Amino acid sequence: MAEIRPLRAWRYDKSLTNDIESLTSPLFDVVSRKQREKLYQNELNSIHLSVPRGNNAFEGARELLDKWKREGTIKQDALPGIYVYYQYFSLAGSTKTYCRKGFICNIRAYDWDDEDSMILRHENTIPQSVNDRVEVLEKTLLNVSPTHGLYTDPNFELEKYMDESMRNPIYETEDYQGVKDVLSVIHDAETIKKFLKLIEDKKIILADGHHRYEGSLMHRKTQTAANPNHTGNEGYNYHLMFLTNTEADDLRILPTHRVIENLPDFDENEVMKKLEEDFIIKPVEEAHTINEIILGKQWAFGVLFNDRAYKIRLKPEKIDTLEWNFPDVIKKLDLTVMHYFVIEKVLGIKGKDQRKSENIRFDRSFGDCLARVIKKEAQMALITNDISMEDVKRVCHSGYTMPQKSTYFYPKVICGFLFSSIKEDEFKLPPYSCF
């Protein structure tokens, strides 16, 4: 069973939240350098905890957190609750407004390598990013921002309680992407029990936050080994998560493109010659349209160079020559095809080395990819399609994972609305809470 718990969140003092927008920040892995510099100018912005900087940055984050608690900058809610979180957004080129409905809670940190794990992952992680998240957690004992998990409930049993809670929001703001973020809280014990009951027989797909979740797993293992009186109920056994329903029409997964840079002896003509063996190739006159040209076409990609652009599509008979030892559900993914036939076979970066390669960068903005190759900041860019929710489900249940940075669930959860402490005296719920 997937065990979730209400929490007593730490939140900014009411005297500060009239301007809550100035205290929130994007997730650490989507913050641009320019955005960071602006956010760092506010000494109370949550980025100082989520992406600490400076000498001995992680220790500095701990000291800052202690100061904020001591001075009342942030205060812990008196009652445990389930925090309802709605995000209203539109997609580029459309006027339709979506509302992604979900709730934030603590969830037991299940080891995803266990056969009966209640948490399923669909992506591999990058070791250095995991190490950074472990250090932040070890120093602060604080989940600064929730990861994003998916549960499946075709009956939509919880939405009516969330809608009711949203009649009295705590915060309402617009984030850096133009997304309207709204938070409310449910304190009613009987209602909270309905959330706990519904989730207990679900498996959770980890949509976003693989590095933060793995950081929680590593911290839990370290603390378990060091605690001879370990019970399984300590705060380090839990993790902060935002849960949304896969059956809702508000899950959007945007593509993440690959940018290639600093490969030695790189030659555009040689690359194109090698691609001819496995791909049908068509030149594209207007490079800025290539993402539209490949839209919805299986195993089709855009290839951008400084002054040339091509649409490439795998020859159907070539899929059976893919030598990686994966089941068909993985082999037939667009990104598996890209990483094998282009990045390994043509560019020479072996699959086992791709997670750590300094020559592969990930960019979610097609415009940025185009600009980087035009400015010669990159040697080439590989443009891909998005991935469906059904693909994600199939991969998770296969027990395998997609290539790293395969999905970009939009919009991202913002940081700063609430924090969750795993420090033992702050994590424990009071006896009167009924939980």
Task: Describe the protein in words.
The chain is α+β, with helices and mostly antiparallel strands and 435 residues long. It folds into two domains: 4-253 and 410-433, no CATH class; 256-385, Conserved hypothetical protein from pyrococcus furiosus pfu- 392566-001, domain 2 (2-Layer Sandwich). It has helices spanning 33-40, 47-50, 57-71, 127-140, 159-165, 189-199, 210-226, 268-275, 290-293, 328-331, 334-344, 366-374, 389-398, 424-427, and strands at residues 4-5, 10-12, 74-76, 82-89, 98-108, 119-120, 142-143, 147-151, 171-174, 180-186, 204-208, 238-245, 252-254, 257-260, 279-283, 300-304, 309-314, 360-363, 380-383, 408-410, 420-421. Strands 1, 4, 5, 6, 8, 9, 10, 11 and 12 form a nine-stranded mixed beta sheet that branches. α3 (57-71) runs parallel beside α4 and α4 packs across α7. The longest helix is centred in the middle third of the chain and has 17 residues, at 210-226. The chain is globular and about 70 Å long.
